[in-house]
Design goal:
The complex is a heterodimer. Chain A is α/β, with parallel strands linked by helices. Chain A has 20 helices and 12 strands. In chain A, strand 11 and strand 12 form a beta hairpin. By secondary structure, chain B is an alpha/beta fold. In chain B, 65% of the residues lie in helices and 11% in strands. In chain B, the strands form 3 sheets. Chain B has a 6-stranded mixed β-sheet, sandwiched between helices. In chain B, strands 2-1-4-5 form a 4-stranded antiparallel β-sheet, with helices on one face. In chain B, strands 7-8 form a two-stranded antiparallel ribbon. In chain B, helix 1 runs parallel beside helix 4 and helix 1 packs antiparallel against helix 9. Classes of the chains: A alpha/beta, B alpha/beta. The interface between A and B is large, with 139 and 141 residues.
Chain lengths: 590, 575
């Protein structure tokens, strides 16, 4: 899609519809057929009216209505009309049926592409974009695109066809009445143009003030504690009410101006209706038109005016669809992670696990480096604890190791630069447990197995026992098959599940980023045993704030301001009475 | 939803009655118009002069104009009612949220409160006024049109009624098929959202496990089900329009046919123009019913929003102010007697007892989750104790109105939240009328005067959440804010954690010297911050592990000694 960056979102959307070309053609054909049936039905109705009218003129004292009206003729015309109405209903149903299918299929493909895109975006994207925003693109925006496309595409097609056909029929029926009908159009357009221009202004003002009020309420709602403590309720309310009143005023204007369009255009169409009655009546009195002409015309003018307003609505819908499509395509066109051409491969079975950081520098924002010229060597099989104050770059180090971000300098595993490996290969070498224990909506078992396929039952059982979740499994109503979610487990339980997941993954190296922070001390001891088993013989990186976790590390890397300030074992570092000892005093106690 | 009607003011109720009056006028005009169409047809048939046709046309225009004017008046009235009601409800929700306690407001997230305050109110108000207006207008229209038809022909009334019945049955059966699907679609949409949310929140895990494909499959499953059900529902709904058109057209045809029959039977040619106008009356009846159906569709959605608003409005703070409070003159002491507290579940604090006097410093130490913040919340009366008594200034906090109690307390919360505005607005949060000198004095005590001057003084801008200040600067501003109004008590919840040791010490020195008469409560992690306190309360998982001075606790409290030993060198301990 990249080469199309400058084209409009709507034309990009049309490319998504390309494969439904046949469907669109069918919709077009059906809509044309439907329009013709509707319009010709009006001419048959005209014939019917003329027949009754002329018959009733012939009636006199000697001829009763029964003599002049042949019910068979009426029946024949009536049946023809019934057929045409049924036909046009069928056309319009099939058209809507097809469009529903096309819309949903396009919506689905957009969703699929968005979901695939998620896998290709660099981590940076997720740092800089609010979750709600991305979510809203997938559901609200895709929905809007699908819905508006449905209504606007098919209605504008039908409306345009109908407009042309009706105008032709109107001229054929009577040019004078046609011109009368046309005379009202500029008025309608003027009114609509006037109102649209005004209402856009007012709606913009409304949205802006709504945004302002939202911002005000958001800030106060997130500082409720402060407001209460300082007794600032009155002032907060006063501020809010000021914005609230401003919003009301502009909403009132926007409401009135947009709601007034409808009665005004209705009035103009009624004006046209009356004018046609009058002109038609005069023509008839002069013998220039029949009552049937008038009856047909009154239908025509409806068929003429409704597509006009439909086109107006479709234009509105196109705008919102275009805005939504714009947001969707903006996402789909976000810069992706560069394609990789791995020069090397380390298989998880063969890796020894020696890791070297060589002059690594990195910043999420280039002007604020988090790691500065960081170097360290870790022997295969060592247990490494990473400690340091908040913001020292501990988690960043892990992020780079997992190649979530690209850094300056180099990181080597068994002497091979991770830049020459594929990202997937690097990640295959590590199991990882994070502080923010992540579980997804699925069964407990799915959560533990995760993406790993074909794990023998034995292994699952081992992991369940080692990670201390067998109590949990026993307590859940359907055991391991119970559907769990973000809110159905406690923080500690979730963390245990993620630990079990890491055990199943069974990668040759291990990263624990504050993995036991939400677990109480008793459970932690259980897990610690499991972790020790897990870390035995594996190179492991542990970020922890609990003394017990750090103490028995083979190597402690002390980070401050993106650099290693000290390294060694717990005893060595304490004896040194340097940064670590200080930090340990300030941070870990309590 | 209609419980929200009581928030209408008298003026709005009057406006609504006025609106109904205009509605009657409008509907009357609309229903009368077809009669004049019939008269024009009659005149045409009779070959009347252009002038008389023009005259009838003129009358029609007058009716049309009155109808439009009435509609415009309705528009103004309903806009005034709905926006006024919207404003009122937003204000009600907002002020109600401010009146809620920690515990009651905490049952909603800030985001959810926000949606309820703006989106939900908008949803309810716009549909409620529409429902009230059309709910009256549509039956009125249908009724009047039917009366007109019935007045001249029973048969045609019957046909019209038949069409309405078919319409209702048709739509009911379409809805019966689609509504369950729409519910399913709603559920699937939620699941789609949930799945994607999972992927986004766990993106690091997803990447770490190379599980992009797995996540895509999970998403695709829901997406496919969504497509299937949406398509089905969409296709069933596609029946709606053609069905309505068919009934419209069928009704016109039936009226023609039956009309002919009546003309022939009664040998009455004069019935013809009337029949002509009936087709229009009949279409008004059908339209009215379609409007009603649309309204029925709107009600459930509006109801959901109304429920969400009422959920907030019906929450009541569990903290009650005393009915007849005595004058409050705090003596500077703080005391807790056997206090236990919880947030509804397991106790967070149990059996806490201590006392400090005016001007003394109380320190609270303990690990994460030990109950330190809860202890402060009890003093501020953000929370009531489950058992035991809390005295601030010699009076039980339950016997003082909350606002009166908090007027005497300066508080720096753990999250040093700053509000957007100026530094002045933030520092003078307790009392906007405080002089610049007093504010700068407080800032100086909090070691914040330096960077405030650097930033351009008290008028310098503060971004939302104080993002344009560093963590340490925010903490110092927060401390200054607590001190600015010279309260009898100041409460610091871990407010020194981002300060370096030197600043920490300087601020504490300032507090001691310049706020000698102020009772200070300091929650902290560092032993060095609390060691000089008059009373140190040690909390361990909600239990009180000890209370006393640094020296006493070193001797008597193993938990405290453990913390102290881990932070201080032997020499420091011995000092």
């Amino acid at each position: 899609m990249k080469q199309h960056k400058n084209t409009s979102p709507l034309s990009k959307l049309l490319r998504y519809c390309k494969r439904h070309l046949a469907g669109f053609v069918a919709v077009l054909v059906l809509s044309i057929a439907g329009v013709f049936l509707t319009v010709f039905a009006a001419t048959f109705l005209k014939e019917l009216t003329d027949y009754i009218e002329s018959a009733s003129r012939q009636a006199s004292d000697s001829l009763t209505m029964a003599d002049v009206i042949d019910m068979n003729v009426i029946l024949r015309l009536g049946l023809t009309l019934t057929g045409m109405y049924l036909g046009s209903a069928l056309c319009s149903y099939l058209q809507a049926y097809l469009m529903a299918g096309i819309n949903q299929s396009v919506a689905r493909r957009l969703r699929t592409d968005i979901s695939a895109k998620l896998g290709r975006l660099p981590m940076r994207y997720f740092d800089g974009h609010a979750l709600g925003d991305t979510l809203s693109r997938v559901t609200n925006d895709v929905d809007t695109v699908a819905q508006s496309m449905a209504s606007s595409l098919s209605t504008s097609l039908t409306a345009a066809v109908q407009l042309v056909v009706v105008i032709v029929m109107m001229f054929l029926t009577d040019p004078w009445m046609t011109l009368t009908a046309f005379a009202t159009v500029p008025f309608s357009l003027l009114v609509i143009a006037f109102i649209v221009r005004r209402s856009q202004k007012y709606f913009r003002a409304q949205q802006q003030r709504l945004g302002a009020l939202n911002g005000c309420a958001e800030e106060y709602y997130s500082s409720l504690e402060l407001i209460r403590a300082y007794g600032a309720e009155e002032r907060a309310l006063q501020n809010f009410e000021e914005g609230n009143e401003r919003l009301r005023a502009s909403m009132y204007r926007a409401n009135v101006i947009s709601a007034i369009a409808h009665p005004l255009t209705t009035f103009i169409s009624k004006l046209g209706y009356v004018a046609i009655c009058v002109v038609g009546g005069i023509l008839m009195a002069r013998g220039g038109a029949t009552l049937g002409d008038l009856a047909a015309f009154l239908l025509y003018i409806n068929l003429f005016q409704s597509p006009l307003s439909q086109l107006g609505q479709a234009a509105n819908l196109f705008q919102s669809a275009s805005a939504a499509a714009g947001r969707v395509f903006e996402f789909l066109e976000e810069e992706e992670e560069p394609q990789e051409t791995p020069a090397a491969h380390i298989s998880p079975e063969e890796v020894r696990g020696a890791v070297e950081f060589r002059h690594v520098s990195f910043g999420y924002d280039p002007s604020h480096p988090v790691l500065r010229d960081f170097s360290a060597t870790v022997q295969a099989g060592q247990k490494v604890a990473i400690v340091g104050p908040t913001g020292a770059g501990k988690t960043t180090l892990v992020n780079l190791l997992m190649r979530f971000y690209e850094c300056e300098g180099d990181i080597l595993i068994d002497g091979v630069s991770i830049k020459s490996l594929s990202r997937a290969n690097v990640r295959d070498l590590f199991s990882m447990v994070l502080q923010d224990a992540w579980v997804f909506g699925g069964t407990l078992k799915e959560n533990v197995l995760y993406s790993k396929q074909g794990v023998p039952e034995e292994r699952v059982k081992e992991a369940v026992i080692a990670s201390d979740i067998y109590h949990l499994v026993a307590a859940l109503p359907q055991g391991a098959e119970t559907v769990i979610g973000e809110n159905s487990l406690s923080g500690g339980q979730k963390q245990l599940v993620t630990i079990a997941r890491a055990m199943i993954e069974d990668a040759p190296m291990l990263i624990l980023d504050e993995a036991t922070s939400n677990v109480d001390t008793r459970t932690e001891r259980t897990i610690q045993a499991a972790m020790d088993a897990l870390t035995k013989g594996r190179t492991s990186f542990v970020i922890a704030h609990r003394l017990s976790t750090i103490q028995n590390a083979d190597l402690i890397l002390v980070l401050d301001h993106g650099n290693i300030v000290e390294q060694g074992t717990h005893e060595e570092l304490l004896a040194r009475r340097g940064f670590y000892a200080n930090l340990y005093n300030a941070q870990f106690a309590g | 939803m209609f419980r929200l009607i009581r928030y209408l003011t008298k003026k709005q109720v009057f406006f609504f009655l006025l609106l109904l009056a205009f509605l009657v006028v409008q509907v009357f005009c609309d229903v009368t118009l077809p009669t004049y169409t019939a008269r024009i047809v009659e005149q045409m048939q009779a070959g009347a002069e252009a002038f008389s046709i023009l005259k009838t046309g003129g009358i029609m225009l007058v009716f049309a104009a009155v109808s439009v004017l009435a509609t415009i008046a309705e528009t103004f009235l309903s806009a005034s009612i709905s926006t006024g009601l919207g404003r009122r409800l937003r204000g009600e929700v907002f002020s109600h949220v401010l009146s809620l306690s920690d515990r009651t407001a905490g049952s909603f997230t800030a985001g959810s409160l926000l949606t309820r305050t703006t989106n939900d109110v908008q949803q309810v108000v716009s549909s409620m006024v529409l429902i009230l207006r059309l709910g009256v207008g549509a039956p009125l229209m249908a009724g009047m049109a039917i009366v007109r038809i019935a007045r001249s022909s029973g048969e045609l009334t019957f046909v019209t009624a038949g069409a309405v019945v078919i319409l209702l049955c048709g739509i009911a059966s379409i809805l019966a098929v689609t509504l369950p699907r729409f519910k399913l679609v709603q559920k699937l949409t939620d699941r789609l959202n949930g799945t994607l949310r999972d992927t986004l929140t766990g993106i690091r895990v997803v990447r770490a496990y190379n599980a992009e494909e797995y996540e895509r499959t999970r998403f695709e499953e829901v997406s496919a089900a969504l497509q299937k059900n949406n398509t089905f529902a969409g296709r069933a709904m596609a029946l709606m329009n053609p069905l309505m058109m068919l009934i419209f057209n069928g009704l016109t045809l039936a009226i023609y046919w039956l009309g002919c029959f009546i003309i022939v039977r009664d040998n009455n040619a004069a019935f013809f123009p009337e029949m002509f106008s009936f087709t229009q009356l009949a279409s008004q009846v059908v339209t009215a019913f379609m409007v009603l159906i649309m309204l029925f569709n709107m009600i459930p959605r509006a109801q959901v929003s109304a429920k969400r608003i009422l959920e907030v409005l019906q929450k009541q703070s569990e903290l009650k102010d005393p009915a007849a409070p005595a004058a409050y003159a705090p003596d500077g002491s703080i005391e807790m007697k056997n206090v236990s507290a919880s947030y509804g579940g397991a106790p967070v604090l149990s059996k806490v007892t201590f006392r400090v006097e005016k001007g003394q410093t109380l320190a609270v130490v303990g690990g994460t989750g030990a109950g330190k913040t809860t202890l402060l919340k009890l003093l501020l009366r953000f929370l009531d104790a489950d058992a035991g008594e809390v005295f601030v200034g010699g009076t039980n906090v339950k016997d003082v109105p909350q606002s009166e109690l908090r007027r005497h307390l300066g508080y720096a919360p753990q999250k040093s939240a700053l509000l957007s505005g100026t530094i002045r607005e933030n520092l003078a949060f307790a009392e906007p009328s405080l002089s610049d000198d007093k504010l700068m004095a407080a800032a100086d005590a909090a070691c914040a005067a330096g960077f405030i001057t650097e930033k351009g003084g008290l008028q310098a801008e503060v971004a939302q959440g104080g993002r344009n200040f560093s963590g340490g600067q925010r903490q110092r501003l927060s401390i200054a804010r607590a001190l600015a109004a010279k309260p009898s008590y100041v409460l610091f919840d871990d407010s020194f954690s981002a300060l370096d040791f030197a600043t920490d010490a300087q601020v504490r020195k300032n507090l001691k010297e310049r706020f000698a008469g102020t009772t200070k409560v300091i929650v902290a992690q560092r032993i060095s911050t609390v060691r000089d306190a008059d009373v140190i309360v040690v909390l361990d998982h909600g239990q009180m592990a000890g209370a006393g001075t640094h020296e006493e606790l070193l001797k008597t409290c193993p938990a405290y000694r453990e913390i102290a030993e881990s932070q201080l060198s032997q020499e420091e301990l011995a000092r």
